[in-house]
Amino acid sequence: GFWGSVFCTLGVVLPSFIIIILIASFLYRYITNEWVSYAFEGIRVCIILLMVLSVFKLAKADKKSLFYFIVLGISFAVATFTDMNVIILLIIMMFAGILYGILKRRRNID
Question: Which residues does 75 contact at the CB level (< 8 Å), separation at least 6?
Fold first, then answer.
């Protein structure tokens, strides 16, 4: 049920989150080191590439609808042209998807 999904999500997210916090607190002391700074610049590029590849894989696997393209366009425009925090945008679009799913189920649209 609901609580099972909450605890499963926490079980998936929390270990990674804790490990990242521990690594960040350890590396924070060395951020002024020139070599560590260069390493992070290289890692940043790889992370961006991994994120872009993930988006393409998800886009290929998912069934596209008009709602999909509307959310994509609005999200891109808001993230690119405003100062809105991307996490807040993600939460707003999550609720938009939930609302769309509820309406779709009630009206059998799409």
Answer: 89, 93
**Rounded CA separation 11/4 (Å):** 10
User: How many beta carbons lie within 10 A of that of residue 31, not counting itself?
Assistant: 10
pLDDT, tens digit, 9 for 90 and up, residues 34-80: 888 888 888 888 988 888 888 788 777 767 788 888 888 899 899 98
Helix 86-107 vs helix 66-81: crossing angle, to nearest 10: 160
Q: Which residue carries 């099972």 as its tokens?
A: 4
Q: How far is it, in rounded angstroms, from Cα 47 to Cα 37?
A: 15
pTM above 0.85, yes or no: no
